[in-house]
Amino acid sequence: MTVAFPWVLWVTGVAVLGVIAAHLLSVGRPPVLVLPTARFIPDGALESVSRARRLSDLWLLLVRALALLLAGAAFAGVRTAPSRVPVASVAVLDVGNSADTAAWRAAAVQALDGLALDSSQSVRAAVLWDGRVLRGDAGALRAALDTIPMLGPRDADATPTRASHSLAGALLAAQRTAPSLADMVDSLALVVVSPLRDDATSAALRAVRSVWPGRIDVVSPPTIATAPNSTATDSTATLVPARAQVMVRAREGDAVSVAFRQSGTLPAAPTRVVRALPASDDSAFARAGGVLVWWPDSSASASRSRAGEAADSVEARADVGAAVIANGRALVVPLSRTVSFAESQVAVAWWPDGATAVAEEALGTGCVRTVGFAPPGGDVLLSASARGLLSALVAPCATAASPRSSAPLSADMVAALGDSGPLVAADALPSVAERGMPPLARWLLACAVACLALEQWMRARRASAPGGAA
Amino acid sequence: MTPVTPEPLAIGPLLDALRGVTWPARALVRAGLPGAHRANQRGTSGEFTEYRGYRQGDDPRRIDWRLLARSDRAFVRVTDERAWWPTWLVVDASASMSFPAPGASWARGTGADKWTMARALTAGLAAAAHATGDPVGVIIATRPDARRLPPRTRRGTVQAIARALDEITPRGDVPLAPLLARVPAGARLVVITDALTDDEGLLSAMARRRAAGSDATLVQVVHPCEVDPPAGAWQAIDPEAEHAPRPLVADARARYRDAFAAWRASVARRAMASGARHVTVLCDESAPRAVRRIVQGVAPVANAPSANAPMSSDATSRRTR
């Protein structure tokens, strides 16, 4: 049992002593004297205070003292201390690695089991590299990991982004999680379960590592065979031309085709603009690292084409917008909106009201950009104000992840990361202030209120009794 | 608060102590039936007083013939008239007279209670008047109706008065002023009371009786515990007044004594201003002694009224004696 504010208990003790002292004082009316000459006595208060040798109203004193003690204990923040273990581990599991296959999952679970078998340690929390935190002992964590699809077989097209694959971020999440375990353990061990490849590092890694005051144990599972989708990536790489250029697939005389051709914009990455429904080779082009710009003619074609993909995030619509803003330039012209995008999608161009006009979606190492309005008529796209839109459409993908490096982390970085040293004492971690009143304090306070109510009842009963004093 | 019936008065020892005590009038009384007091009329009794020259209309049988023969002048013998003097005793039987309550431990050794003293005084004064040959009547002011015993001179009158008083239990508050109007003019009126009930009305009524020719005496019965209440803190309740209880504590005690002494002095002063006599009787005084003092018109040794607290000094001196 711990007390947050011991001085409150001292104050409570003094208050109880005061109550006991008050019960040694007898406040009441003196005995009655029938005195015919009482009229000559000056009027005044009848109550008199006198000291008694014995405590009066023992039950009332007991209830009052109990109420004070309960309230004092509640306000002092008395709480039952949880059972503490000598050492607990916070495991940082690399679930965003390219090796996120069943084999990697089995390896991670095996690493957890290995930690749990050490009698001096029991895993209390696991931080996944995407920021999720799992709590519990090793068995509970393993059961929780079984239910996480992240570690299961993944869609071959799903490629983890760089943002979700940062060891520095995971370490930060672990350091934020550790103080919450400080009440349950004496020392904390931080264990990183990861193959530690180059792609996991970032510029902030050393700074984040220096914040953790103890050592970090690095557990590298056995090498996992490279995922087969890397071969597919190599095969589709031939679909992307080596030179960055804009290739427009449209009918002859199409305004979009003419605009790209006339603008002379040089893209940073191979770009393909399609006006009709994208074909499978278009998707392969994008997955291989190209930029696929799909600019449908009307809302009907857009809805028809997107119905099977992301109906919840894309909604076909047909109204008129006044302008489109891209690359800091506005194309002011009546435009017919054909698609409404979800707010979560990455925007490339915007309507004046802030809605997304052109959205980008990652696909493989490339991306697909969907234009949400029909091409304006006439030679508007040939104007200077349209160049901002055209240059935004052929810009490099913002959402695609660059191919990972499968090279292991450098030795000095591993040494800096692991760093020998003592475990982190729980007292050295910043305390986590518990919000609100702990449950035990609430119960104590409720009991104190009940005692006060009982005290009021006893006083009222005593006052109503014959000869009772107030 | 339930009134407690007092113990019967021991009349025998009291009468023994007052044997031979008479109560002569200090002035000429109104002429009436023959009695022991000198009347304000000259009469034909056998007790010679003086000679007076014969005037037309005098009874020739009262002429002293021998003196006429020696002096050749006619004189008649003048004698004093003797008359009786009806005595009325008005006794206050209000609740305030029942103090201290029987059995009060703090009142031990402080003398009789006020009602017992009042009964003893009444019986003793009745015995003294009866021994003088005067008719004695009593009016007992009690609830619900005052009890009246008409003046009698026959034997057993004092015992009858004592028995009537024994049957009374003091209760309530009874104003005495209306009762004094029943007393005939010229009679001797003695009011035995603590004067705590309507003292203004009582003194006014006594002044009226005094103006009507009665000899009025106010015997104020005071208990020592009223002068000096028992020690400690008390919640004082007036049995006759309606006011709330008052705290009798240390700092209020001195102010109480001063106020009570001042009031008693005021009562004595007003009584004497109206021509009545005022006698204070403390309950720790023996009843025969108090009766003798009243009958003989002797003030206590230390009863000389002073300018500041004339009537409080007697109580204090007697208690220290």
Distance between the termini of chain A: 40 Å
Write out the strand line-up for the largest beta sheet of chain B, numbering strands in chain order. 5-4-3-6-7-10
Q: In what range is the share of β-strand residues of chain B? A: 15-25%
Quantity of strands of chain A, as a count:
19
List the total number of helices of chain B.
10
Helical proportion of chain B, percent range: 25-40%
Tally the helices of chain A: 13
- The rounded Rg of chain B comes to 23 Å
Unreliable parts of chain B: 301-321
Residue runs with pLDDT of under 50 for 5 or more positions of chain A: 150-164, 224-237, 304-313
The topology string of helices and strands of chain B comes to HEHEEHEEHHEHEHEEHEHH
Number of strands of chain B: 10
Helix content of chain A: 25-40%
Q: Per DSSP, what share of the residues of chain A sits in E-state strands of 2 or more residues?
A: 15-25%
Alpha-carbon distance between the termini of chain B?
35 Å
Whole-number radius of gyration of chain A?
A: 37 Å
Biggest interface:
A-B, 19 and 35 residues
Structural class of chain A: alpha/beta
Q: How does the overall form of chain A come out from the CA principal axes?
A: elongated
Mean pLDDT of chain A: 75
Tell me what you see in this structure:
Chain A is α/β, with parallel strands linked by helices. Helices cover 33% and strands 23% of the residues of chain A. Chain A has helices at 6-23, 58-75, 102-117, 138-146, 167-177, 205-211, 229-236, 255-263, 280-287, 299-306, 387-393, 411-418, 439-464, and strands spanning 2-3, 25-28, 32-34, 48-51, 78-79, 85-93, 121-128, 133-135, 185-193, 216-219, 246-249, 271-274, 291-294, 314-326, 329-341, 346-350, 356-363, 366-371, 424-425. In chain A, the strands form five sheets. In chain A, strands 6, 7, 8, 9, 10 and 19 form a six-stranded mixed β-sheet that branches. In chain A, strand 14 and strand 15 form a beta hairpin. In chain A, helix 3 (102-117) runs antiparallel to helix 4 (138-146) and helix 5 (167-177) packs parallel to helix 6. The relative contact order of chain A is 0.12. Mean pLDDT of chain A is 75; it is low at 150-164, 224-237 and 304-313. Chain B is of the alpha/beta class and 321 residues long. Helices cover 33% and strands 22% of the residues of chain B. Chain B has helices spanning 11-17, 65-71, 114-132, 157-166, 177-180, 199-211, 224-227, 250-273, 287-296, 312-320, and strands at 37-53, 75-83, 87-92, 136-141, 147-152, 188-193, 215-222, 234-237, 246-248, 277-282. In chain B, strand 4 and strand 5 (147-152) form a beta hairpin. The A-B interface holds A 29-46, 48 and B 1, 95-97, 99, 101, 194, 196, 225-226, 229-230, 232-241, 243-249, 252, 255-256, 259-260, 263. Strand 3 (32-34) of chain A pairs parallel with strand 8 (234-237) of chain B.
